[in-house]
């Protein structure tokens, strides 16, 4: 029944959730976990070769996975879920290049935008060698408690669609709802997956990018929970001009893309509407500590290159200056904390 097994690379919080959800819903589906470190083989044995997901305090352990050490793996990969952090994507996909081809599908489940362009140009520069690319926008909240256990802390939904990189032609598969990987995922009750057209996917990706470009860096440099970004007057003062930059860049991108995608709803990315949307999400996730704040606090690399730096880069293509985004990129990269009284000096507002 299942002719095309699934491989998962990036067995972190989301990788575990996706593998566990697929196993639970499709007990017969062959699922292979791809380990990039030899130590994961020992961790896997210690975990009893199970993935544990804890939801509402209840633990559920799923077994029956295959695993491969990436360097030793052989054979075609038909379906791949890539759940690495954005900045680790090219390094994760490159060793799999010879195993992926035009009849493979790769689903990227990541925040931000830009990884598919990098994978296209740095790994699959020949269009004839390129797999189908899907992107998943994940609105769930999951965190890992050990190498093969995680807590499904805030369930919401996943949106999946076909995507084309800006350096390639239009998506090979116009709709995700004929793709087996997308269909298997959409069967999983835990994931609440919606399959959408490439146009709608882009629209939702840009909405999520806007949210992440405001809440993530501001919560990180001021070291506050999400809700404080919209409550604290000095931080709020940055939100409006920051959104004006984001809006100008996204509208320029859409004007270009709308030649091909006229279903994108006009006006959604106008500054006022975008501000309302971003603050609504901020209110819903007010008590969350953003992923960027957590990364910065832990001294880890952040995903700023795929969020605000992406906006700065796109802005340059359209001749749009983005000084606030540039400042945020710099501060986050320097892991610099800012106090309320430093706002006017640092941001010039
Ligand atoms: N967690 C969440 O709730 C959500 C996350 N996201 C996004 O999803 C993406 C993944 O996030 P998350 O699961 O939290 O991240 P994690 O850091 O938990 O997982 C990433 C995993 O990728 C592994 N990895 C790193 N380099 C490679 C490589 N070269 N080959 C294979 N695996 C590699 C890491 O292993 P190692 O331990 O060696 O670093 C780690 O296990 C991010 O873009 C994030 O923003 C989006 C929405 C919600
Ligand atoms: C929506 C938000 C800001 C929730 O915390 C998020 O996606 C993140 O932290 O990366």
TrEMBL record:
<dbReference type="InterPro" id="IPR008927">
    <property type="entry name" value="6-PGluconate_DH-like_C_sf"/>
</dbReference>
<dbReference type="InterPro" id="IPR050838">
    <property type="entry name" value="Ketopantoate_reductase"/>
</dbReference>
<dbReference type="InterPro" id="IPR013752">
    <property type="entry name" value="KPA_reductase"/>
</dbReference>
<dbReference type="InterPro" id="IPR013332">
    <property type="entry name" value="KPR_N"/>
</dbReference>
<dbReference type="Pfam" id="PF02558">
    <property type="entry name" value="ApbA"/>
</dbReference>
<dbReference type="Pfam" id="PF08546">
    <property type="entry name" value="ApbA_C"/>
</dbReference>
<dbReference type="InterPro" id="IPR036291">
    <property type="entry name" value="NAD(P)-bd_dom_sf"/>
</dbReference>
<keyword id="KW-0560">Oxidoreductase</keyword>
<protein>
    <recommendedName>
        <fullName>2-dehydropantoate 2-reductase</fullName>
        <ecNumber>1.1.1.169</ecNumber>
    </recommendedName>
</protein>
<keyword id="KW-0521">NADP</keyword>
<comment type="function">
    <text>Catalyzes the NADPH-dependent reduction of ketopantoate into pantoic acid.</text>
</comment>
<dbReference type="GO" id="GO:0015940">
    <property type="term" value="P:pantothenate biosynthetic process"/>
</dbReference>
<comment type="similarity">
    <text>Belongs to the ketopantoate reductase family.</text>
</comment>
<dbReference type="GO" id="GO:0005739">
    <property type="term" value="C:mitochondrion"/>
</dbReference>
<feature type="domain" description="Ketopantoate reductase C-terminal">
    <location>
        <begin position="202"/>
        <end position="335"/>
    </location>
</feature>
<dbReference type="InterPro" id="IPR003710">
    <property type="entry name" value="ApbA"/>
</dbReference>
<dbReference type="GO" id="GO:0008677">
    <property type="term" value="F:2-dehydropantoate 2-reductase activity"/>
</dbReference>
<dbReference type="GO" id="GO:0050661">
    <property type="term" value="F:NADP binding"/>
</dbReference>
<dbReference type="InterPro" id="IPR013328">
    <property type="entry name" value="6PGD_dom2"/>
</dbReference>
<feature type="domain" description="Ketopantoate reductase N-terminal">
    <location>
        <begin position="6"/>
        <end position="163"/>
    </location>
</feature>
């Amino acid at each position: 029944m299942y002719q095309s097994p699934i491989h998962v690379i990036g067995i972190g919080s989301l990788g575990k959730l996706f593998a566990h959800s697929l196993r639970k819903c499709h007990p017969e589906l062959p699922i292979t976990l791809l380990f990039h470190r030899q130590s994961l083989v020992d961790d896997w044995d210690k975990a009893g070769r199970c993935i544990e997901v804890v939801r509402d305090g209840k633990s559920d352990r799923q077994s029956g996975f295959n695993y491969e050490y990436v360097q030793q793996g052989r054979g075609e990969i038909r379906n791949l879920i890539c759940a690495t952090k954005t900045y680790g994507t090219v390094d994760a996909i490159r060793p799999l290049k010879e195993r992926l081809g035009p009849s493979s599908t790769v689903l990227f489940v990541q925040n931000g935008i830009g990884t598919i362009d990098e994978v296209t140009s740095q790994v699959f520069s020949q269009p004839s060698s390129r797999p189908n690319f899907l992107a998943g926008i994940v609105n769930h909240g999951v965190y890992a408690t050990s190498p093969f256990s995680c807590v499904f802390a805030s369930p919401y939904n996943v949106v999946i669609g076909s995507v084309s990189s800006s350096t390639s032609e239009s998506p090979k598969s116009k709709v995700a709802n004929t793709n087996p990987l997308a269909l298997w995922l959409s069967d999983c009750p835990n994931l609440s997956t919606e399959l959408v057209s490439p146009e709608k996917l882009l629209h939702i990706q840009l909405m999520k990018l806007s949210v992440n470009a405001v809440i993530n860096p501001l919560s990180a440099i001021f070291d506050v929970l999400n809700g404080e970004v919209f409550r604290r007057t000095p931080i709020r003062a940055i939100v409006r001009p920051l959104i004006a930059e984001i809006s100008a860049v996204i509208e320029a991108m859409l004007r270009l893309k709308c030649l091909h995608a006229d279903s994108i709803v006009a006006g959604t990315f106008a500054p006022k509407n975008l501000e309302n949307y971003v603050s609504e999400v901020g209110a819903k996730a007010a008590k969350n500590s953003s992923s960027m704040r957590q990364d910065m606090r832990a001294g880890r690399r952040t995903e700023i290159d795929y969020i605000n730096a992406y906006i700065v880069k796109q802005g340059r293509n359209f001749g749009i200056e983005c000084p606030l985004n540039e400042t945020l990129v710099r501060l986050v990269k320097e892991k610099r904390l800012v106090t309320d009284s430093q706002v006017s000096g640092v941001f010039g507002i």
